[in-house]
């Protein structure tokens, strides 16, 4: 699913474009909207959209300048212009900033689909180019291994392949920016180089992209059998100097040059296990790997429980269900991409609900877009879980607090109705809480805060009032009156009645009969 940012200075047109087009069916999701180029530039940095549909004529910063700025940051971003001016100069300018196309007002939905298909095709082509880049990366490694330098691997000599990686690289990159991140990558490489040198024997070290390092070492190299203690010392040093940790994926066997590609990919696969095993570890490719398929039949049910708990303002329950949600992924060792898609779906459903409630729907879209963008960056499920848990708490702080009054009124009304219908039956707080989808403690708190009475006291008042209706009929025995209002213990009913009305049920009946005479 590609991410789309909409930019239009006419609010009504912007809302219509956002709400009336079935973007999902076209394979894109609106992650944000903006009213001018300057605002859009800030949101694009935050939301990282793949496609931007923008008006040309706007205040503060027009669409042409916005497109130039966006392309300077990310040449791969796809720009689609909106204009009411079907003139050659705008088409020419659109081509100059490498826009994929433009839309004329009023919109034709078939044209929107056509231009979006072009944008998606360009994005897919870029993805294919990325695969080509990976192939070039392997060629670079091969050249490194073949480089004729003193101390290099001899022809036919065996070596061990490893891939080291800065943990949560994308998250750190978002925090630091490109320049500071490159300095960090270089600094970590120096520490790795020093560690490899101290161990002796042949080695090769090459910095790759996205905070990864290719390492080839002799089987005799001490780095192959790096003890937990020594690895911890190295990682502690990296943490101290750069505030990051390093994980290593290692091929489980020695290889020769003609097998390095297979070993390289096995090392990368082993590195993928940090999604469940955690950061700062050495993972061997022979260890159990992440499953490509998992038994996740319970996920939709847990997702429903989370949504329901949020809608009923049950913070503790929602957090507990979220624990179960991620625990199932962990237990099943589900492939990271599948976990990301699952969490995407959960966040989308939550924000779809609150989008309708919030007074500032644009803020809801921005927040959702930021969350979805960040989720993609995590390479460890515990970090992802903690992030989503924090955002779930933010949802309660932001949305559910405002819902408390209306929600409490609704809950109390439903409880009173339930008691009216079931007062003659044995009732427990647990029974009522199940009906209200609230925990017993939460239910007690809501009812007491709203009415000033406990549920028990309210039920007792109700039963006592109802008992008066039955006592007036002399044909009904006192014990049947007790049973009729929910008391199996007649003596207890008589004690309560006397406490309420200052006399026993029998005395009360006698007085009623005397008055009637």
UniProtKB/TrEMBL annotation:
What GO molecular function terms would the record report?
DNA-binding transcription factor activity; sequence-specific DNA binding
**GO CC terms, sorted:** cytoplasm
Q: Which UniProt keywords apply?
A: Cytoplasm, DNA-binding, Phosphoprotein, Transcription, Transcription regulation, Two-component regulatory system
Q: Does the keyword Transport apply?
A: no
Q: Does the keyword Transcription apply?
A: yes
The cross-references to Pfam families, in alphabetical order and at most eight, read:
HTH_18 (PF12833), Response_reg (PF00072)
Quote the InterPro entries the UniProt record gives: CheY-like_superfamily (IPR011006), Homeodomain-like_sf (IPR009057), HptR (IPR051552), HTH_AraC (IPR018060), HTH_AraC-typ_CS (IPR018062), Sig_transdc_resp-reg_receiver (IPR001789), Tscrpt_reg_AraC-type_HTH (IPR020449)
Cite the Response regulatory domain residue spans from the record. Answer: 3-120
Task: Give the PROSITE patterns listed for this entry.
Answer: HTH_ARAC_FAMILY_1, HTH_ARAC_FAMILY_2, RESPONSE_REGULATORY
- What domain of life does the native source organism fall in? Bacteria
Q: Which Gene3D superfamilies match?
A: 3.40.50.2300, Homeodomain-like (1.10.10.60)
Please list the GO biological process terms of this entry.
phosphorelay signal transduction system
The cellular location(s) given in this protein's UniProt record come to: Cytoplasm
SMART domains in UniProt = HTH_ARAC (SM00342), REC (SM00448)
Residues bearing PTM 4-aspartylphosphate = 55
Q: Which residues form the HTH araC/xylS-type domain?
A: 413-511
Q: What is its main location?
A: cytoplasm
* PANTHER family tied to this protein: HISTIDINE KINASE-RELATED, TRANSCRIPTIONAL REGULATORY PROTEIN HPTR
Q: What does this protein do?
A: May play the central regulatory role in sporulation. It may be an element of the effector pathway responsible for the activation of sporulation genes in response to nutritional stress. Spo0A may act in concert with spo0H (a sigma factor) to control the expression of some genes that are critical to the sporulation process.
Name of protein: Stage 0 sporulation protein A homolog
Taxonomy of origin reads:
Bacteria, Bacillati, Bacillota, Clostridia, Eubacteriales
